[in-house]
Amino acid sequence: MNRSLISKYNVQGPRYTSYPTVPYWDEALFSGEQWETTVIQSIRESNQQEGISVYIHLPFCEQLCTFCACHKRITKQHQFERPYIETILKEWQLYLKLFQENNQTPVLKELHLGGGTPTFFSPGNLRFLVEELFATVAIAEHPEFSFEGHPNNTTYEHLQTLFDLGFTRVSFGVQDYDPVIQQAINRIQPFEQVERVTKWAREIGYKSVSHDLVFGLPFHTWEKMEQTIRKTLGLQPDRLAFYSYAHVPWVKGVGQRGFSEADLPKGTEKRILYENGKLLLEELGYFEIGMDHFSLVHDDLYLAMQENRLHRNFMGYTSGATQLMIGLGMSAISDSWYAFAQNEKSVEAYQCRVEKGKLPVFRGHLLTQEDLIIRQQILNIMCRLETSRNSEYSNLFGPIWDQLHELEQDGLIELSENNLKVTESGRAFIRNVAMAFDKRMLERSPETQLFSSVV
To answer: Residue 390 sits in which domain range?
Structure first.
C-alpha cells in the first residue's frame, strides 16, 4: 500500500456506470420526443441481432437501511404491490408501441429486478409481472434473468417461482455480519438466514449465486471485515460484489446519518480493508473482475472478462452488452446508447405520468459525437483496463493524453503513443484513470459535493 498515493488520489469521483455522469447531463437540451427517437434508432440497429435489456425498479422496503443510497419507498403496506406492477406494465406498453411501429417484437436478452427490495413483493405478484412481460416479447437464445433478494424476506417460494420463469442468477445483500455494524446501519440479518437462502438457491438450481459485501461501513476494522469474508466464503458464492461504502448524506439526507462521521474508516484505513480483502479472496480462489467484483472461474462474469465481453452500465458489470437498456419503474434509468433518460423519482409522480399515457421520463441527456467517443474510452478502461486513442480525433485525445503522464509517473498506467494500460498497482485507482478522460467534469469542476471518495 502506497499511503502517499492514496492521500494524493483519494478525491471525489464518479463510479462511471455512465458517461456523461448524471450531474453533467445537459438536461435543457433533452426532451421526451428526442428520447423516443433514439430508442427507435436503437431498436432498428440492435434488437434482432443482440436483443435488449430490461431493468425493473421495485422500490419498496419495509425498513430503512442507513447505508443505502438507492431510490426507495419505506412502507409495510403491501397493498401497493399490485397497483405499482400494473403501472410498470402500462409503461412497458408505451415502449412496446415503439417496437410495433417499427414492425419488431422485442427480443429479451437480459432482465433484472432491482430495488429497493424485489422480494418485498409476493411470489404471486412477481409471477404476474414477469409473465405479462414475457407475453409481449421473444426470449433470446441464451437469456440472463436475475434479481436481488433480501435474505430476511426471500422465501423458498420466491426462489422457486422466479427459477420456474427462467431466472438463473440471484444476488443477496449481505453487507456485513458484525452485530455492531448491523445495528449501526439498521440491517439486522444473521448469518444463518443468508446460509439458508443460499442453500435454497443451490438446491433449486440457480447457476450463479452472488453476495454483496460493503467495506468502509461505520466501526469497520480489518478483524471484522475478515470474519465477514471468511463466513461468506464458507458458502462459496459464485461471485461477489465488494463495494466501497459511498457516504453521500448531502444527496440522501437523514437516511445516511444514522451514525457519526467519526465512526467511518477513511483514506488508507479504509483502503486496507479492500486490499486485505482482495488478497484473502484471491487466496481462496476468487478473481478480481473490473472494479469491486470477484468471481470463481466457472462464473459467466469471469468468462466474460477472459473473452473481453465485460460491459458496464447502470446495472453495474454484466457479462454481455446490449445497445438498448430500458428501465421500468420509479427512478429507473434507460440507455439507448445515444441517450440516457431517468424516470420520475417518486412513486406518485411516476404513476401519474404513466396514467396520462406518457413515458415517465423527467430528465436525460442526448450524447454528442464527442460524448460517444469518450464513453467508449471509459468503458474500455472500466471493463478491459486498457484503451487506445483514435488518430482521427487527435484534437480530442491530444489534451487528454498530455495529462496522463502524472498517472504514468506514479506507476498507475503504462502509456505509449496510442495505448493506455492500467497496471496492477493502478487497479485501486481505476476511477482516477477514467476521470482523466471525463472532459465534461474537467471543464466544469464541481463547486459542491457530488460524488463519493474514489479510493
So the answer is: 1-20+368-455
Are the CB atoms for 244 and 216 separated by under 8 Å? yes
Kindly state whether residues 270 and 149 are assigned to the same domain: yes
User: Cell 498507475 maps to which residue?
Assistant: 412
Residue owning grid cell 396514467: 355
Instruction: List b or e across 272-296, with b for residues whose CB sees 16 or more CB atoms inside 10 angstroms.
Output: bbbebbbebbeeeebbbbbbbbbbb
Q: What is the pLDDT of residue 428?
A: 86
Q: How many degrees, rounded to 5, is the angle at CA 236 between CA 231 and CA 238?
A: 135
- Domain finish residue from 343, 366, 389: 366
Q: What is the pTM of this model?
A: 0.93
CA distances from 365 to 6, 223, 327 (A): 33, 44, 15
Closest CA to 189 of 117, 244, 261: 117
Residue 422's domain is classified under what CATH number? 1.10.10.920
- The Cα–Cα gap between 342 and 17 comes to 14
Split into its structural domains, the chain has a count of 2
Residue 9: the pLDDT is: 86
Domain final residue pick, 366, 393, 420? 366
Torsion sign across C-alpha atoms 145, 148, 151, 155: negative
* pLDDT score of 448: 58
Longest dimension (CA), the chain: 61
Reported residue count of the chain is: 455
Q: Tell me the three cell numbers of residue 366.
A: 442526448
Residue in the block written with cell 446501519: 185
Residue in this structure with the C-alpha cell 440479518, named with its chain if needed: 189
Q: Which three cell numbers stand for residue 370?
A: 464527442
Cα separation, 302 vs 5, in Å, equals 29
Q: Which residues of the chain have pLDDT under 50?
A: 256
Return the bridge partners of 61, or none. Answer: 74
Cα separations in angstroms, 217 against 210, 234, 257, 266, 362: 20, 22, 12, 10, 33
